[in-house]
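Dear colleague,

Thank you for sharing your sequence with our group. We've completed the structure prediction you requested, and as agreed, I am returning the results in plain text so they can be pasted directly into your records. Please verify that the sequence below matches your submission; if there's any discrepancy, let me know and we will rerun it promptly.
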Amino acid sequence: MLRCEDCEFFRRQSDGSPELLCDPFSNIKESACLSKWQIAQLGVIAQSHKATLAMYRRLAPLQEKMFQHMEREIDEAEEADSWKLQDDDPDHPDPDHPDHPDHPDQFWR
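Please find the predicted structure tokens below.
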């Protein structure tokens, strides 16, 4: 079996970690090479995931501020429209109120 260190597609990075330059679709020399390449790619996926999490941690405070701002805007809009929902016009009382003369319960009183 060919060791990775002896292969022409192997290179050691400056930090000492191995780098496999082989292409699994064209220049894999042995079947064990594909397994090693897959394991190396798992490391790349893990590093990408860690970088994504670090970015989310950086964005979390900004996202929280945006949510607070949006909540304030929604509350202000609801407060501005609250006059539309208030029914304190004495000329047109609420017909669903039990004291209204047209309410069905008034018939039995």
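Summary note from our side: Residues 1-74 form one domain.

Kind regards,
the structure core
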